[in-house]
């Protein structure tokens, strides 16, 4: 299988809204052209979910793909909306609805969607969602079983230990988040590989952020690989990792299909020199920040409440960097609540001021922390 997957969460729409959860009708004519070009170039993996485009992603995939191509010529991945399920009897109803919406009798890849430790304990285990998926696999309605995951490497290790039936894990992975505070791509990737499971990558271009790199970074990329877009660097970084079977790219127009399929047809992993360059590029990107925090961590050490202040401020800066580029779907917003479950969030701050006293940047850390943590709480996805 070729390593590029067609993410169907931001399809071209007829109306104005670009929100991946909106119920705008899909532009079917354009979507068909995109599917045709993707297939013509030998790519076969399509990824959807129950919630993308408020359910219309599945419905329009039936029109653009399933009705127009032989079933064995493509691979279809769909996801159970674990976050919407509170009773076991909902699970088979939703699953059958998904088969019907997509117009198929089986899914090639089926994932429990957006697992984090809290919904794992409160919903997924009590509703026996893994058990149901295993039964569907035995009946031939699922060919490969996996999950998409947004939480810590420790939670991932626990869940993979408890579920040997999980064949693959889909995680947010890109060169910017490789060593980040919240997303922790590298550590999650290492846990999956240690468990000997396969990896599917989402967010390789960080929701579009890594397609719009600073000018200096862009010109160095151009010198090193003439004609290759910044997005191509990001996708090649993820696709070159051992155990990665697919890198998903949410594609919204024909030009993105043209670009992505061009460099993924003859896929070349990044050289050591290119990988080193991306580490420097991340440092350059991090220089633009809303809160002038240098990530020295002196405040973390001074805080009697053990709040991870530098992580919360660093993540807030990353979110603001994406929003300056007009990107308002920020993967970081999946991680603040799981973080609060295992560490301390900004909401337990008592205002003692010890953090501000030690800050070499002379920030009003108490105020910045309050603002950054309230923002993340308010905008968290779940
Ligand atoms: S003001 Fe809040 S964040 Fe700062 S040291 Fe005190 S408790 Fe920690
Ligand atoms: S002490 Fe100041 S500069 Fe250092 S991590 Fe904390 S807020 Fe940032």
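Q: What amino acid sequence fits the structure above?
A:
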């Amino acid at each position: 299988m070729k390593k590029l997957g067609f993410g169907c969460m931001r399809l071209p729409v007829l109306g104005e809204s670009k929100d991946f959860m909106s119920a705008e009708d899909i532009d079917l004519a354009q979507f068909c052209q995109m599917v045709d070009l993707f297939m013509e170039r030998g790519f076969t993996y399509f990824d959807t979910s129950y919630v993308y485009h408020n359910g219309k992603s599945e419905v329009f995939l039936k029109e653009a793909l399933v009705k127009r191509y032989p079933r064995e010529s493509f691979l279809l991945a769909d996801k159970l909306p674990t976050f919407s399920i509170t009773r076991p009897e909902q699970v088979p109803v939703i699953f059958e609805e998904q088969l019907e919406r997509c117009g198929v009798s089986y899914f090639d890849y089926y994932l429990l969607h957006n697992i984090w430790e809290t919904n794992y304990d409160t919903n997924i285990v009590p509703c026996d969602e893994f058990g149901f998926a295993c039964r569907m696999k035995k009946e031939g309605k699922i060919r490969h079983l996996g999950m998409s995951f947004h939480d810590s490497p420790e939670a991932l290790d626990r869940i993979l230990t408890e579920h040997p039936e999980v064949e693959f894990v889909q995680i947010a992975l890109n060169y910017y988040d490789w060593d980040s505070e919240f997303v922790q791509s590298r550590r999650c990737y290492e846990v999956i590989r240690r468990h000997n499971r396969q990896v599917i990558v989402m967010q390789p271009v960080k929701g579009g952020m890594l397609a719009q790199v600073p000018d200096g970074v862009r010109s160095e990329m151009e010198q090193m690989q003439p004609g290759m877009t910044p997005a191509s660097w990001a996708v090649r970084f993820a696709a070159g990792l051992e155990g990665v079977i697919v890198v998903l790219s949410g594609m919204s127009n024909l030009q993105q299909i043209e670009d992505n399929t061009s460099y993924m047809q003859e896929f070349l992993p990044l050289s050591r020199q290119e990988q080193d360059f991306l580490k420097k590029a991340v440092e350059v990107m991090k220089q633009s920040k809303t809160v002038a925090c240098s990530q020295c961590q002196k405040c973390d050490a001074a805080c009697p409440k053990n709040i991870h202040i530098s992580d919360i401020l660093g993540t807030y800066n990353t979110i603001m960097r994406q929003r300056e580029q007009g990107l308002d779907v920020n993967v970081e917003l999946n991680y603040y609540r799981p973080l609060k479950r295992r560490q301390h969030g900004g909401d337990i701050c008592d205002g003692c001021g010890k953090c501000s006293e030690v800050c070499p940047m002379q920030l009003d850390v108490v105020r910045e922390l309050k603002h950054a943590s309230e923002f993340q709480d308010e905008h968290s996805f779940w």
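Q: And what stands out in the fold?
A: The chain has a mean pLDDT of 91.
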